[in-house]
Amino acid sequence: MPHLHPRLNGMYFRLTVLYFCMSCTLSHAANEEFNTEFLQDVTDQVSVDAVKYGYRIVPGTYDFSIFINNEKVDTRPVQFYKNEQNQIVPCFDQTFIDNYNILFLSPEQKKQDAQGCYDLTAIPNVSIDQDISLQKLSLSIPQVNLQQYARGYVPTRLFNQGINAVILNYAANSNYFNNKDTQDRHNNSLFLNGGFNWGAWRYRNQSNFTQYSGQSGRWQNISNKLERDLQTSTPTRLEIGDSFSNNDVFDSTNFRGIQLSSDAIQLPIGLQNYAPVIRGVAQTNATVEIRQNGYIIYSTNVAPGNFTINDLYAANESGNLEVSVIESDGRIQKFVQPYSSVPNMVRAGQSKFQATAGQYRSGLTDTYRPYFGQFTYAYGINNALTPYTGIIAAEDYYSAAAGLAWSLGGFGAFSSDITYAQNKTAQGLTKEGVSLRFLYAKSLNSLGTNVRLVGYRYSTQDYYSLSDAVQEKSQWKNGLYQYSYDDTNALNNEQLTEQERRRYFYSSTYYNKRNQFQISVNQSLGDWGQIYATLAKTDFWQKEYDQESWQIGYNKNYKDIAYGLYYQKNKSMFQGEDYNLGFNISIPLERPRAAKKYDLISNNNYQYSHITGSTATTALSASFLEDKNLNAQLQFSHAEQSNNDSLALNTNYRGTKLNSSFGYTYSDQYQQISASVNGGVLIHSGGILFGQQMYSNPIIIEAKGAQGVRIDNQPGLKIDASGYAVVSGSSAYMRNRVALKAEDLGQNMNIDDPVITDIVPTKFAIVKVKFDVKSGHSVLANLRFNDKYLTTGASILDAKTQKNVGLVGLNGQAYLTGVQSQQQLVAKWGNTDDEQCKFILPTLSNREIGYDEINLDCHVIGAQ
Known about the structure:
Largest sheet: 24 strands, antiparallel, barrel
Strand content: over 45%
Radius of gyration: 34 Å
Structural class: mainly beta
CATH topology of the domain at 6-157: Ubiquitin-like (UB roll)
Oligomer: single chain
Number of helices: 5
């Protein structure tokens, strides 16, 4: 028997007896009528009418999946009713029309009957298909009769604000170094990101604790923010506390205050911006730290070789990311990852705005933090043109900008703007200047080319952005400007503290930017692989302090073998050029046709730097356990500069409650031990849950009685003893799916629907989904009532809870699931007393497989 929603099970059993009869009816001539008298004793009048009139479904309300033009848009209750032609059809009422944005282009198309239901077949070229067994309603509607939305559109009525809860994510890292010729050293860090949800409001705090050898621990409070979405005609977000402005018109600015802005994340996925991806290479077991605006926003331990970081949840919409790769032997590699967003385009007829008021905030300066106000606005005139403007007013500073973005059709999108700024310097001088900016983005799909961003800005010598104006005053020290930087040679001296590695330069001149250029390109070569390149270059009016950062790479897969080449180059204001080039190759070692038990892979990397020389590594990695959630790596490396060989072991375990890793490195010059643990804690009305980190819209799964059942596509995650599990993240304002693994459901465990779809959380919402797990015996009951077979289609309910445990098919047979010995049940096929009865189950056998078959009489309600 096919699996149906509970509401359809009754209809299914009723119609089982009818399909044979209906097929008999079709074999007669059109003027012949099938005799239904014999059915009166085996079923009810509704089923008899279904045979008489040829119904495919009996009137009622059922849950159906709605498809429009082959795309699933919803799952909802649909009312089926009998129209004037004695046909059972779905009712398309005004709510249905509004929910799915169906348009009537003429009065003739807008036909509505006495029930308030529209006849959609009045629209030319509309077709409606009902698949009863799959509970699927498919509509084919011309595009002209549908309000058009971007790909990935989700109706706002599906947005789920979630439950009230408290959440805390943690990540703890610890490293210990035993050096042969120097003093032992260590470093520890703890990162916290937590808060609470109350209705649509979200409070979040980010903070960290760091402690290095020879230094006292430092607690840093990065941000506190209260926010919520406002679901208006223009999706809007309200933020109170520590946040940042966008970079649509001006450079992104950190602040503490209040901000009201258009919320792009509420838009369909096709309209959202991309996030930065950090690529780098570690030569040993290393710690990667990422700073933005002076704050550490990310830290993790990585194994030797290439690494990719693509989950910078805390990154601003622009602003360079400073990446530090701290090697186990004390060496530190630093490079800057440029980051900016795509051109400022707005759809025709829509607007985009942001209003900000607060105090400038940056981890780079604490001597000067002015209050400021900022407003930006953009409006899509048509599909091609979007004018935008903005204004900033602050202490001793004023700026105004205007620009135009336009679509070049097949040539991409382009924007250009001019900004005027007036600034009073630390020396009391008034400076006025202008800046010109050009941005371009294009994806040449036919050529496999993706130009993510090309940006160029030219500024006159007296132009100051808001961040420049703040920095200029902050760096003014005793009549000179103070510049700080890291000494390249000192970076590789593990005996020095971070402050001791810092160097200072003093000048009577503040260095203004002249030209800025950014580009990021990915080019597919088809079967020949892919190349990528990024470049960022900044020229100052004082040419000797120009800085640049760029990288180019090539990747290729040959069958199961992956390899690549890369080259990186960096130059800062007060440092010479530093470059790295390398080669990596990954080779699976298991037989191609064999079942992959361990995912055994050999990873090899060679890197050359003109500062540290050559480094070669080879590693063997594998995955273990049923869900492959335990990873281990054995790695050997050789460093030319120190003539040092090292052997390292790294493990990583992804569990239900947390993730943990451990690493050990041995060489004749040093030893290193590293460990890390991260996870999340969630407090809700059902108790306290521990799980993996829960940064983006966690989903609480409640499945009482399903202990040990795994979650589909969530390695290592199972329903715990309390009946809960937490999916660490989902996509905000998008459809999400949660499913229990069917193979884990035992003989005596039944779930009506182990898959829940259309979960659409709002930003940072904590959504709770519940699976109705029935545990107990399976029984095939032969039921009689008043010396006749019990009515086909009758529902069998628990007398106390009124939960459905089965339905009656032909000859009074009912398959019951999740029932217990001596359980009292009620059979109902109507609402009157003579349309229901009760019975009690006998003592049932404890079967591991199969079911009991019993014969029972059903008695009138109230009878003893």
